[in-house]
Amino acid sequence: MHIVTAKEMYDTDRYAMEEMGLQGHLLMENAGRAVATAIKDQVSEEDQILILVGKGNNGGDGFVIARTLLQQGYSVEVLQIPNDEEVQGDARTHREIYEAFGYGYRRFDSVDSLATLSSRKTVIIDCLLGIGVKGPLRSPYDEIVPHVNQLDAKVISVDLPSGVPADEGVSFEGAIQADYTVVIQYPKTSAFLQHTAPYYGDWKAVDIGLPDHLLRGRNKGCSVWTKSDVVASLPEREPFSHKGSHGKGLVIGGSIQMPGSVTMTSRAALRAGAGLLTVATVSKVISILASSVTEATFIPLEEQEGRISSVEGIEFGYDGVAIGMGMGRHREGKELLEKVLKLSESPVLIDADGLYALKGYLSEVKSRSYPTIITPHPGEMAHLLDVSIPELLEKPFHYSRQFASRYGVHVVLKGAFTLVTTPDEKQWVHTTGNVGLAKGGSGDVLAGMLLAMVMQPQTVELALNNGVWLHGSTADLLTEQAHSTYDLLATDLIDGLSKTYRTI
């Protein structure tokens, strides 16, 4: 499923009309009917429905929705907010068709009259403002939106909640708080931003017949990674394969203060499918690990104050390396990471404390001949970028693309919607996972799973996306069947991964 900016949506609409001959009023008819079908799943024939229409395409969609629902026996009233002369183009055409069918509509004159009309309604359908909105709401929408938000009625928005911008990094003040949003054709970027996604409520995208190949053919772009993508791309194990066929991995990390993180990473890598795994850490951690990661082998490293001080003794003949989990933040960290990146002739995944060491080595990373993967949470990513966390969360797509391209790395930006970005600026959003993952250790488990994935016969971008999807889906499966979002632990993910594999 593609994710689009406002410009990409406008360009697709324009191409469909100008180059492919799909007339605007036909697209609007398709959109309104598709949205009406989706709305029927959210309402009953007993509901009293009020549709609020604006002057743009969203308003035109509203007239098609109203006509479609009225024809099918639903109780619907329409309130047009702008003056009649302000409604132009395809929206005006569909208002005239609506009237030709014998249906009437009310005209907005004040919030008081809206209050009287809406007080008897159980469902409000928001067709007020579209994808071009920016900045604070103007009159009368600055009064209408707060009124709608305080109603007891169920609120359904069309395409996106009125007042919410389509794109990232766009300021806004006030928006419809929808219970449900029916997205037209493609979800917009704002559906995946931490500060705007809650306005959508639950949402569903409906197809209106736009030329999907335009977006599929772009060199860059953004999509949602789905179960069907995993099923199509996750490598099948050959019947005559052996442990060496499934990847020989190395995990470097851990300290006497933080032995758990490297333990979880190692166990997750093995459970996710790594054929062989070696853990390089300080001697005291090995004694802790040996009883819980019995399938791994170990390399004791030089230590200072209970933490790794050197990677001497490691022969880098591995198919993948993960470094940083529980390593600690100290001045030797940059030197350790620098040696690993120079000596390793395979993908290197950098997580946790390794990301703090990376900041002093960024200028050299791009020259690597092998993939480099970073897996930051927003705080770690903001630190690497020298921006505040709020700045990052306002524009995560932009900052991830910028960083991945500048330094030639793959970025897995963790969050409610984990974002995977490649050095050539392709992006995928993940919607699996839940708040149960907001626990210490979840990132360590993900790092191990990703290490296992990059060692399988698939591209790095497929490996990262499949690993993130499996991680989130395991949390979803466990909270549906055996756990709550309160009690779910990172170690539960490791043990529950086998259930997820069986579902695909």
From TrEMBL:
<dbReference type="Pfam" id="PF03853">
    <property type="entry name" value="YjeF_N"/>
</dbReference>
<comment type="similarity">
    <text>In the N-terminal section; belongs to the NnrE/AIBP family.</text>
</comment>
<feature type="binding site">
    <location>
        <begin position="57"/>
        <end position="61"/>
    </location>
    <ligand>
        <name>(6S)-NADPHX</name>
    </ligand>
</feature>
<comment type="subunit">
    <text>Homotetramer.</text>
</comment>
<comment type="function">
    <text>Catalyzes the dehydration of the S-form of NAD(P)HX at the expense of ADP, which is converted to AMP. Together with NAD(P)HX epimerase, which catalyzes the epimerization of the S- and R-forms, the enzyme allows the repair of both epimers of NAD(P)HX, a damaged form of NAD(P)H that is a result of enzymatic or heat-dependent hydration.</text>
</comment>
<keyword id="KW-0456">Lyase</keyword>
<feature type="domain" description="YjeF C-terminal">
    <location>
        <begin position="226"/>
        <end position="504"/>
    </location>
</feature>
<dbReference type="InterPro" id="IPR030677">
    <property type="entry name" value="Nnr"/>
</dbReference>
<feature type="binding site">
    <location>
        <position position="443"/>
    </location>
    <ligand>
        <name>AMP</name>
    </ligand>
</feature>
<feature type="binding site">
    <location>
        <position position="58"/>
    </location>
    <ligand>
        <name>K(+)</name>
    </ligand>
</feature>
<dbReference type="Pfam" id="PF01256">
    <property type="entry name" value="Carb_kinase"/>
</dbReference>
<dbReference type="InterPro" id="IPR000631">
    <property type="entry name" value="CARKD"/>
</dbReference>
<dbReference type="InterPro" id="IPR036652">
    <property type="entry name" value="YjeF_N_dom_sf"/>
</dbReference>
<feature type="binding site">
    <location>
        <position position="444"/>
    </location>
    <ligand>
        <name>(6S)-NADPHX</name>
    </ligand>
</feature>
<keyword id="KW-0630">Potassium</keyword>
<protein>
    <recommendedName>
        <fullName>Bifunctional NAD(P)H-hydrate repair enzyme</fullName>
        <ecNumber>4.2.1.136</ecNumber>
        <ecNumber>5.1.99.6</ecNumber>
    </recommendedName>
</protein>
<feature type="domain" description="YjeF N-terminal">
    <location>
        <begin position="9"/>
        <end position="216"/>
    </location>
</feature>
<keyword id="KW-0067">ATP-binding</keyword>
<feature type="binding site">
    <location>
        <position position="377"/>
    </location>
    <ligand>
        <name>(6S)-NADPHX</name>
    </ligand>
</feature>
<keyword id="KW-0511">Multifunctional enzyme</keyword>
<keyword id="KW-0413">Isomerase</keyword>
<feature type="binding site">
    <location>
        <position position="159"/>
    </location>
    <ligand>
        <name>(6S)-NADPHX</name>
    </ligand>
</feature>
<feature type="binding site">
    <location>
        <begin position="414"/>
        <end position="418"/>
    </location>
    <ligand>
        <name>AMP</name>
    </ligand>
</feature>
<comment type="function">
    <text>Catalyzes the epimerization of the S- and R-forms of NAD(P)HX, a damaged form of NAD(P)H that is a result of enzymatic or heat-dependent hydration. This is a prerequisite for the S-specific NAD(P)H-hydrate dehydratase to allow the repair of both epimers of NAD(P)HX.</text>
</comment>
<dbReference type="InterPro" id="IPR004443">
    <property type="entry name" value="YjeF_N_dom"/>
</dbReference>
<keyword id="KW-0521">NADP</keyword>
<feature type="binding site">
    <location>
        <position position="126"/>
    </location>
    <ligand>
        <name>K(+)</name>
    </ligand>
</feature>
<feature type="binding site">
    <location>
        <begin position="130"/>
        <end position="136"/>
    </location>
    <ligand>
        <name>(6S)-NADPHX</name>
    </ligand>
</feature>
<dbReference type="InterPro" id="IPR029056">
    <property type="entry name" value="Ribokinase-like"/>
</dbReference>
<comment type="similarity">
    <text>Belongs to the NnrE/AIBP family.</text>
</comment>
<dbReference type="InterPro" id="IPR017953">
    <property type="entry name" value="Carbohydrate_kinase_pred_CS"/>
</dbReference>
<keyword id="KW-0520">NAD</keyword>
<feature type="binding site">
    <location>
        <position position="326"/>
    </location>
    <ligand>
        <name>(6S)-NADPHX</name>
    </ligand>
</feature>
<feature type="binding site">
    <location>
        <position position="162"/>
    </location>
    <ligand>
        <name>K(+)</name>
    </ligand>
</feature>
<keyword id="KW-0547">Nucleotide-binding</keyword>
<keyword id="KW-0479">Metal-binding</keyword>
<feature type="binding site">
    <location>
        <position position="141"/>
    </location>
    <ligand>
        <name>(6S)-NADPHX</name>
    </ligand>
</feature>
